[in-house]
Amino acid sequence: MKASDLFVKCLEEEGIEYIYGVPGEENADFMISLEKSKKIQFVLCRHEQGAAFMAEIYGRLTGNPAGCLGTLGPGATNLITGVADANMDHAPMLVLTGQGSSQRLHKESHQVMDVVAMYAPVTKWATSVLHQDNIPEIIRKAVRVARSEKPGAVLIELPEDIAKLQTTTTPIPPRRFRRPGPDNKIIDEAYEMLKKAKRPIILAGNGCIRRRTSKQLRKFCEATGIGVVSTFMGKGSVDMDADYCLYTIGLQSKDVVACAVDAADLVLTLGYDMVEYHPNLWNKDGNKNIIHADFYPAEIDAHYHPEVELIGDMAQTITMLLDRAEQDGGLSFDLSQQKATREQMHDELAMYKDDDANDVLKPQKVLWDAREVMGPHDIMLSDVGAHKMWVARHYQCHEPNTCLIPNGFCSMGFALPGAIAASMVHPDRRILAVCGDAGFMMNVQEMETARRLNVKCTVMVWEDNEYGLIAWKQQSQFGKHTDLAFGNPNWMQLAEAFGWNGHKVTKSSEIKNTLETALNEDGPSLVLIPIDYRENMILTERLGDIACPI
Question: Where are the transmembrane segments (predicted)?
């Protein structure tokens, strides 16, 4: 068969369901082969960056990779931002790019660049198909590497001449294995540290929302009572309504939740990536007792030097600790600080819930009402901007992967294409994206993709007519900010032009009903929120005066 046909058959064997992308001349053979597939759906996008973000969200929600496709040269460079975002936030992804004929790669040639070298820093593995018979091995390895902890992106480049060649090889059936947990000796050492602690705390990171980890973590907390602070990426690892949920940490300024970490005499980090919230913000003196539990050893850092490292399958690690606690008849700790922290933070989150008679739309009220209309399994996506800080602090979760935030690479333009993919993965759930006016416009062209696919999602645009997060940070640091203002379209006309439903909220009393209406409409909906970002500096000043409850 032709090499491009074999390539598609190998992807089918791996269970690949979607490829998002913008094709070009150099992957024409692959596209013709893909068109014949009855198992893989190609989603035509309006920009390669949008395609990469869609593949990222598919990977986050399913644990399996989707493909994102671009041609050589500018197609590959357009993909790279979304690919870097997925890789740093550990979403499995296959990046599929075309390339010029292998007969012209050794010299200066139209649109030819070294894509493999360019992608090496932003993928787990990047390779080119140099012989058509190698395709089954390459794809089997690529999917395995992309799925394996910690998941990430893999690039496969297919030159146009090799795609046309005949091959006699066949797909390799996938075999998947569970990674073992740590040995009993090191678990015993960690458990002894835990028994001696008086005020332990758990810092739950990105790894806690993947695989079976969240389920085992909840069992462990129910049995021990140890409180859980989550990073932005770890939201939903424990239920927001659980007594041991201490909400989210991650703001640069000291927040209420940091008080519980300050008071802890032992920090058990689970699936924590240093990029999520640097330890110099919660272990400034470098003197915390730390147990590190993850699939990989700890990153070396002066502020993060664990006494014990539990390396291996996360769910198995937690289960082994839980078994020892149950054999001992349970553990007893001083939970007064975490109880006070939870109560104070709960009051913070509810502070503006009844602010219904106000024509000023405050972030706290908008997110309270958003949480009210969203069910436990519905999905919120946050773009990058000032609103991300508010979503991270004020939108709490019941289940893993129900609040998706770009955190490591932290790219704007993420939420609109991400909402499209989320709607395709879970058409039975409510999908709500929160964007700033700046981030939304970075991939505004995907409004057409959403309309063409008729996905059911709602995008809430917070309008402040400037780069609000940069203004916030400059104002906090320098007492002023540079000119960051810009103009915006007529949002309702924009929605109409793309065939979307459109709504504008003018009073806080309208937020909940407007969101309810939009989330129930057929097809995509846009909700405009003229946001009051005066609250940004008010929050900064309040956090500077935070007093710990105990």
Answer: none
